[in-house]
Amino acid sequence: MLSVSRYMPLLLGFSMAVAACGPAAATVIATRSYSYFAIKGKTADQLDQQLSANGPTASGSSARHPGATKIRFGGDATYVQAGGRCRVASAKVTVHTQIILPRWTNRKGASKQLSMIWDALSSDIKRHEERHAEIARNQARAMERQILALPAQPSCERMQELVTDVSTRGIEEHDRLQARFDRIEAVNFQSRMMRLLNNRIRISGGAR
């Protein structure tokens, strides 16, 4: 149902610097943006049809989703060569996430029941996609730590190979984590929605 879109692999630029020894520096730069697609309807079936027709697609698939998160990784690393050994001097991992969410444009005049259903659904879609973004940020930090922990190598060429291996494995692990999250969410969707709706009904009833 709700799924992360395909993301680009982490690309690390190679640069070599001869400099005085110092502690390795690391930076994770994470940015997030939001965009929206419009849906219309006055019944639950109409809203569902609009989500199926207008929702975003994930790369490599024509299936539509009620929300999506586009994830783009990037980064670079610099190296210091001294005493016949090369080590990582600095690493910067970047991750940009674009969260795509539905916006109900003709909500005015809709029934209270339909509005309540939509509020529960849309809040769950947003939470789901923001969790995808959080998984990506956490994985960027994990890759950074792994790069900085690499032992010194006989050459910077060899060090670059290890950095590339770490980034490749990190992206593969990220893929597994995102897929696992989607599987868990799909299994729990019905019970989660019922719980959200019951909470909103209880709050609404208490407000009268």
Describe this structure in words.
The chain has 3 helices and 5 strands, in the order βββαββαα. It has one domain (about 30-205). The protein has helices spanning about 45-55, 110-150, 155-205, and strands spanning about 5, 10-15, 25-40, 70-80, 85-105. The protein is of the alpha/beta class and about 210 residues long. It is elongated and about 75 Å long.
Short description:
The chain has helices at 44-54, 112-148, 156-207; strands at residues 3-4, 12-17, 25-39, 68-82, 85-104.
How is this fold's topology laid out?
Elements (H helix, E strand, L loop, with lengths): L2 E2 L7 E6 L7 E15 L4 H11 L13 E15 L2 E20 L7 H37 L7 H52 L1
Parallel strand pairs: 1-4, 2-4, 3-5
Antiparallel strand pairs: 4-5
What features would you highlight for this structure?
disordered N terminus; alpha/beta; five-stranded mixed beta sheet; 208 residues
Number of domains: 1
Averaged pLDDT: 81
Order of helices and strands: EEEHEEHH
**Class from secondary-structure proportions:** alpha/beta
Q: How far is it from the N-terminal to the C-terminal residue, by CA? A: 35 Å
Tally of alpha and pi helices:
3
Number of extended strands:
5
CA-based gyration radius: 22 Å
In terms of DSSP E residues, the strand content is 25-35%
Q: Level of helix content?
A: 40-55%
Shape category: elongated
The main pleated sheet reads as: 5 strands, mixed
